[in-house]
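Replying to the earlier thread about multi-chain prediction with a worked example.

Input:
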Amino acid sequence: MSSLKIATTAGRKVRSARAFVHGLFDTAHPLLVQIIPIRRCNIDCGYCNEYDKVSPPVPTEAMLSRIDKLADLETSVVAFSGGEPMLHPDLERLMRYVTGSGMSTGMTTNGFLLTEDRLKRLMDAGMGRIQISLDALNPTPGTPKSLKTLRKKIEMVAKYPIWFRVNTVICEQTVNEVEQVAEFCMNLGVAINFSVVHNRGRLTKSLNNKAYLDRVRWLKGQKLQGRPISTNYFLIDYYEKALEGKPVDWTCQAGNKCYYVSPAGDFHYCYHVAPQMPLAEVTRETLAGNRGRKGCEENCGVDCVLSTSLPYSNLAAVARIEARDNLLQIRSQIKQKVAGLRA
Ligand SMILES: C[S@@+](CC[C@H](N)C(=O)[O-])C[C@H]1O[C@@H](n2cnc3c(N)ncnc32)[C@H](O)[C@@H]1O
Ligand code: SF4
Ligand code: SF4
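Result:
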């Protein structure tokens, strides 16, 4: 890893830790907002219901006033998602506006439209994080995000000093390819974040699926060896329990620590529940009032909300799991070093 990349990573970790601690004391502090600049997508993934083929981009002026509102609400990170965010013609201007308003920004993309020139322009505009979604080895009608299509783009982004990870969904079509997809990323030194496919936010269809559980455990084993799996241990633990049908008692913090802004400008806890109100009407009191149970926690599969919520909802359990597994990881890395010295 280059020294610039190490410095960028260290700076980001410090900022995340600071935002996390701030969130412990400020009951109306949104850490992560997912904002959708366009619902349209240029491809079709079989598991996705978050896109269409016809919607125009949200007008730039409307996006700018939503960003003003997020800044007023003292948001830490504004993440562009979709649909496919790169289809928005003013994405660079929007990102520049977010960073100019004192917030951090990034995007999750299918990567199909990413070129080196566009990456540089987005980074110039202040993009500090990029996540490329990659599910399969070869494209199939239900899983177009494949290594065959995205390998060069991933290799290209990996050269830049930007927070970067690959997102992989464990689903029926890709469950037997997870290991090879992960090996490609890990060998390149790119962090991989995995989630388990959900159906409109519910893990229901994935429960008791032994193959999914096996892959989750394999990925955890890789992380324990110190390989770059960015999914937190506490989220892996959640998936293990949920997939085994064990109850997890947690309180979703969506609407408070994280939330979703639709192309229509509505404020949702997450994409999978109806809007609470227009974003324009949200106040700090609204956010502070959203800390309680949502009623749909059981078998929730919305990974970005789970990873933001669990530390605030189950702080002691999360701290215990992270301490236990990080210790196991350090032990395993020391063992590997000793074995290497002996060989
Ligand atoms: C809705 S997409 C939008 C951004 C962009 N089009 C992309 O695919 O990265 C955001 C993320 O949600 C994931 N996703 C979509 N539907 C899902 C589902 N049913 N289960 C799990 N993850 C899903 C995608 O794989 C992607 O990583
Ligand atoms: S690329 Fe993203 S938005 Fe488009 S269909 Fe796939 S997951 Fe959905
Ligand atoms: S528990 Fe939270 S993230 Fe999950 S579906 Fe309900 S509101 Fe959405």
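The pocket of iron/sulfur cluster (ligand 3) is lined by residues 201, 252, 254, 269-270, 272-273, 294, 296-297, 300, 302, 305 (CB under 6 Å).

Feel free to reuse this layout for your own posts.
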